[in-house]
Amino acid sequence: MQTVMALVDGAERIAVLTGAGVSAESGVPTFRGEDGLWKNHRAEELAHPETFSREPHLVWEFYNWRRSLLSKCKPNRAHHALAALEAHASSMLLMTQNVDGLHHMAGSHNVIEMHGNIWRVKCTRCTYLAEDYSELPELPKCPSCGDLLRPDVVWFGEQLEPGTLHSCVEAAAHADIFMTVGTSGIVQPAASLADLAKRHGAVTVEINLDPTPNSGLVDFSLQGKAADILDKLIP
Ligand code: OAD
Q1: Separation between Cα atoms, residue 28 and residue 73, nearest integer Å
Q2: Which residues are known to be catalytic?
Q3: Helix count (H) and strand count (E) of the chain?
């Protein structure tokens, strides 16, 4: 912990990748933990364009449930510690796989939401795209063309925005220190960023409750709750 603290303190360029575990202590269920299944459906099934075209009611029910749950959640000490780190660092990019918006709410500014944001909706036909924090109907319709809306999130089998991926790769390739926090490290392309950073000379640190496929590959693997560890790491 002391060594990592000194490395974080001395780093010029910091890159951080977060996943569902960073929001767990805010009460947001992770995707692959014990509470990972929703009505016996896996995330890979629900967050999928084919499921949406076959069963839009089911997919919207899942997202409306998550939106309702998230509307009561607040950032936790892990989000706040990362916002404090950005304020103190000379350069820091926070890449998150989370769509909950909690990093922004905690005060982080330089954030890339790799998988989109659950509080935005977009039309399945026209170019309509809007932030919407209201309680949505079972099947929300586009106010512009009347077709079906969907959450503005990246689903399995869909590509990240090319600009998004490019920025993440650049940040990983130029980081002095690359930290992953609260991610199982199995969903690509996010899962490869730590390895990419390491190959380009970054010190790599993983903070996670459980061991992951990345644990043996990173320079430092700190096991525990993100909030507890980040609180100590970023005083
Ligand atoms: P996962 O649910 O796969 O993994 C969460 C990780 O956080 C696990 O390794 C847990 O051990 C760890 N964890 C849980 N509580 C923690 C805590 N308090 N502190 C630290 N770690 C904790 O979530 P992601 O890795 O984010 O994609 O999943 C990646 C993507 O898969 C998601 O963005 C989502 C999902 O399906 C899409 O929806 C496209």
Answers
A1: 7
A2: 115
A3: 10, 9
Q: Which helix (H) or strand (E) holds 128?
A: none
Q: Among 17, 26, 32, which residue has the most ligand 1 atoms within 8 Å of its CB, making it the best to mutate?
A: 32
Q: What is the pLDDT of residues 139-178, one digit of tens each?
A: 999 999 999 999 999 999 999 988 999 999 999 999 999 9
Q: How far is the CA of 32 from the centre of ligand 1 (A)?
A: 6
Strands 149-153 and 116-123 come out as antiparallel
Q: How far apart, in whole angstroms, are the C-alpha atoms of residue 10 and residue 171?
A: 17
Residue ID of nearest Cα to ligand 1 atom 14:
21
Q: Where are the alpha helices (DSSP H) in 12-139?
A: 21-24, 43-46, 49-54, 56-70, 77-88, 102-106
Nearest CA to ligand 1 atom 32: 97
Residues 195-227 pLDDT 10s: 999 999 999 999 999 999 999 999 999 999 999
Domains in the chain (CATH in brackets) are 2-28+75-115+160-233 (3.40.50.1220), 33-71+125-153 (3.30.1600.10)
By the 10 Å C-beta count (0-12 exposed, 13-18 middle, 19+ buried), 55 is classed as middle
Residue nearest to ligand 1 atom 13, measured at CA: 21
**Probe ligand 1: pick from 28, 99, 156, 187, max atoms within 8 Å of CB?**
187
